[in-house]
Design goal:
Layout lengths: L57 H15 L1 H6 L3 E7 L15 E6 L2 E7 H6 L4 H20 L3 H4 L5
Parallel strand pairs: 1-3
Antiparallel strand pairs: 2-3
Helix pairs in contact: 1-4
Length: about 160
């Protein structure tokens, strides 16, 4: 019988633990407890001195999406005479006997205009992908603004068709 590990008299019982490991491990990096990627890509460096956020909380991502939609609709806000305030809330407060679907948004009158409240959790629960989420946010905001300004949502939509 030949010795699988040269220089060992025990027949190479621990030969599987010998060797040099170099380079990254195969497969994808471990994401413990769903916190997202960690390490060098999130640390400060020459291209990102203040570091790059490796993970953005869901509320912050949703707020950024709503602000992008509102910035695209900015020309309408300067033309329309009615003051409109848009607020993002987590979820509506509903009575215990509520049996209908949870609303995605509501319009409430305020002195001098209207307030549109958009509910993040009901919208995100109805969407499977980021593209779906973007479409639903666009449609909710356009529908509510059209309701307040008495216009068609298609007239407000600046996106190419």
């Amino acid at each position: 019988m030949t010795d699988p590990t040269p220089g060992r008299a025990d027949g190479g019982a621990s030969s599987r633990w010998r060797g040099v490991v170099s380079g990254p491990r195969p497969g994808r990096m471990r994401d413990r407890r769903g916190r997202g990627p960690r390490g060098p890509m999130a640390l400060p460096g020459p291209l990102s001195p203040r570091s790059v956020p490796a993970h953005r909380p869901p509320r912050e991502s949703f707020d950024l999406l709503v602000s992008d939609v509102l910035s695209a609709l900015e020309p309408h806000f300067s033309v329309e005479p009615d003051h409109v305030e848009i607020v993002v809330e987590e979820a509506p407060l509903l009575p215990p006997e509520w049996t209908d679907d949870v609303p995605l948004s509501i319009v409430a009158p305020i002195p001098g205009g209207s307030r549109i409240m958009i509910f993040r959790i009901p919208i995100t629960h109805r969407c499977l992908t980021d593209r779906d989420l973007e479409e639903v946010v666009w449609s909710v905001i356009l529908d509510r603004l059209a309701e307040v300004w008495h216009l068609s949502p298609d007239d407000l939509d600046p996106r190419p068709r």
